[in-house]
Design brief:
With 266 residues, the protein is α/β, with parallel strands linked by helices. It is 41% helix and 15% strand. Strand 6, helix 8 and strand 7 form a beta-alpha-beta unit. Helix 1 crosses helix 10 and helix 5 crosses helix 7. The mean pLDDT is 96. It binds 2-phosphoglycolic acid.
Amino acid sequence: MATNSRRPIVAGNWKMNLDHVEAIHLVQQLALGLRSIDHSRTDIQIYPPFTDLRSVEGIIGADNLPIELGAQHCSALESGAYTGEVSVSMLARLSVTSVLVGHSERRQLYGMTDEIVAATSTSVLAGGLHPTICVGETEEEREAGITSEVLTRQVRGALAGVPKGSEGSVVFAYEPVWAIGTGVAATTQDAQGACAHIRSVLTEERGGAASGIRILYGGSAKPDNAGELVAEKDVDGLLVGGASLDAASFAAIIEAVSACYGSPSA
Ligand code: PGA
């Protein structure tokens, strides 16, 4: 059973999967799945590719679904000659409420530095949206025993872009790179240890506001490990990749997380 009062989040990061027709189908399947489970204690978010956002916005609005819409990335800049980029205001017009910032795939494959993560977080917040800032060590860093140092650097780097007083609008996600897409999730102890470390850095930097910041775990989260991961004190939800592409498994994860947060009457 979860032991904190932060409301959990289950977020589905679709990555570069599903065109807008397939996206509509998945959201319809998910809506059906949500009808038969108790998800009242959990915030549900999905992060489709940019080309799906308009269609998914339509279906969430038309059916009044309990799903928040997110985007996987955005530019730190407002507009201009930046071929291929998408701005925060463009996302806001599509009812997007959250943006993943600094996912390890953006950091590793597209050169997203801590400075760009900070600048993007600033822009997301200035546009009235919520950044979900991703941090996590690579396998080499873990083997070298420098996980804490890496997390400290990434969290401090990102906080440079979070104005004091806006901590409540920010979510962090601990995503060990070696666990992403590998089928090998972190152990509950490792996930809790890393999330507690992230919270301690947040506390050093921002004092009491840190206790309200939600920290997710991501990396091979599945229905059968979801409950035990979020039962940990500092793990406030899950960022799910592969398993969010299947409506039944994503719904099962949501159900497991909600169950872990007790019954409404308890
Ligand atoms: P995974 O991805 O669940 O497929 O490991 C998680 C993520 O990258 O957000």
